[in-house]
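Handout, section B. The chain below has 421 residues.
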Amino acid sequence: METSLRNKYYPWLVMAACCIVSAIVMGMGVSCSGLFMKPIAASLSAGLGEVAMYATIMGGTCALTAPIVGYMVGKIDLRLLLTVGVTCSAGGTALLGRITGLWQLYLLGAVIGLGVTLSTSLVMTVVLNNWFVKNTGLAIGITLSGSSVTGIVMNPVLNVLIGTIGWRRVYTLVGVAIAVICLPLVWGVIRMWPSQKGVRAWGEDEMGQAAQAVQADATPAPDLKGELRSMGFAYVFLYVMLSSLALVFLNHFPTLADTAGLGTAVGATMISVGMVGELSGKLFLGALSDRIGVFKAALIVTAMAALAFCGLIFVGFVPVTWVALGAAFLYGPAQGVFTVGLALMTKQMFPAALYSRIYPWFSVIGLVAFSAMFPLVGFVFDKTGSFFLPLAAGAAILVLSCLCLIACDRIAKKKAAEAVK
């Protein structure tokens, strides 16, 4: 009986392990990195902008290595791939506590960026697509929500520790924690295919022959170039680029609130509320995608973000705290589109065998567009003293994004109908 239950529910254990690894690597190693910027700058006698380049280098490394990692997934033993990723993340983070110059900070930023690519969203979503034929959206939503939970919980904890024992020791502790928590899960629980543990994928018995496609790990992608040239790829690509251009305001909330006359305290609260919205949105997007399809679910979330921008524009003229907080909450779920939503869009629009080859390109364009737009918003504010123009442009961009999603949904339905025939 116990063996039967284990075989049946082991996919959820794999999901839990993937969730913990992603949550620790991203939530502790990346999402909390902002806490260290000011003390590092003071210790190295550097400017905050110079220290912040660490995050840019880390993000750039993720973008550059994502296509390579996507090609490697399935060709290299998963445990080895994840071990290298976790080791880069853990070792790089621990060594940050020993830096004496900016060049070391930048170098370790690149190492950690490689670790993140090897051990979080891209690899974990490939694994979960293999382990879940049914409830895939929910599984991915829960897994990728872990980093948000860790970020919300650990930011105040690490902030207290930094003030108590110093940022160098905290970095060392975080690095050790990443290794100690994640490596046993990588070697003891997570595998690429259910057959490697002698069990079935979740929902395989119910889905019948459709589930057998999940196990087709040896089937080569027959027409990658054709898919990359398709209208489906073009519309998803355009959606990711447009929405990335719009969703860069979370870290601008304190300045936005202060400019409106609400004060930076309200702006800081807006960030927290936005992160809660992001967490809720990841779970909502994953569960709703299983019911109505990811493109319709993403359409709802993107429309909510457009409404949030209208609320933020209103706050610029009429500073009302509850409107600002409500807009921040509506804005939050759209952040989940680039993790949960992007993974499910790739799964729904393209053949399963091409997932790890196509997904990285969407990830890259999202990172590039976001990185380009984030400072641009700041420059516009510096010139005009207001966020009105960036917010108005963001709302218009999100409307265009919604049109892309409608087109994507139609193409996905047409592909599904042709596959049945």
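Note. The CA atoms of residues 35 and 159 lie 7 Å apart. Compare this with the example in section A.
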